[in-house]
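User: Sequence in, structure out. Go.
Assistant: Echoing your sequence, followed by the structure tokens.
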Amino acid sequence: MKLTALILLIGSTLCFAQSQEQTLPTTASGKSPTALPPERTEDGRYRFRGVVPDGFSLVSQPRYELVIPGLVSLALGFTISASYGIAFKDSAALVPVLGPWLSMSNPTGGAFGSLGYGGSFLEVISIATQAAGLLMAVVGFAVPRRWLEKSEGGASSVKISFVPSAPGARAGARVVATF
């Protein structure tokens, strides 16, 4: 039951992140339709409104303010789970994210069950920090920050960026070169 809830939570997060992806409309000639002139934000970047006008290029960057704390939280929760898994020889607790759930399903109570209520509290903390950390990292990568930059043109205007794969494609990443 708890494993099903975790899988549904991760699946719904990924579906939400993919629904936030926008496709860039183009005309038959491959050019973008008439776009509003980009407006500048407080940090000096140009706001992306779904269309990349001529003379600009789209820049995408993961939301590091979600990714870094998410990975730290995931590592902290896994450290709690793995330390008890090693101490009490419970190999189920050594699996990231799912380990505490699997340890709970152990008929003997697993690594955490042998500690009584204190172990149950640590198990809940481990589950919560790992699940929250995974969720934050997934959202940080799946919903990147986007903005426009002016293209400088010329022979040396090649830009290579590493971005998550497009919606509908298999999970992964791609390398995009802009000329």
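User: And one key feature?
Assistant: The first strand starts at residue 46 and ends at 47.
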